[in-house]
Amino acid sequence: MKKESKISYEPEADVLTLEISKDAPIDSAKEVGNIVVHFTHNNVPVLIEILEASSFLKQAEDAFSRTHGHLPSATSVPA
C-alpha cells in the first residue's frame, strides 16, 4: 500500500507542513532549530513542520546552488 504525504504552506505563519501520516495520533514532538518533528508513541514520525519556511528554503536553495549549480526556474520545468 502506497503512503501519500501531504505538503501545505501557511503564509501568514510562514510554516511549511509535511504530513506523513494523517491517521496516526501524535504523542510527542522534538524541535531542532526551526524544524519540529511530531511522533507517535512508537517514535514514528507523522508530521514535520518547518518554521520560518521562506528563510529555510532560501538557505537550502543557496546551499544547493553552491554545490550543484542553480536550480531550474519554475518556468523552465516542463509541466
Automatic annotation (TrEMBL):
InterPro entries: DUF2283 (IPR019270). It comes from the Bacteria. Pfam families: DUF2283 (PF10049). This is DUF2283 domain-containing protein.
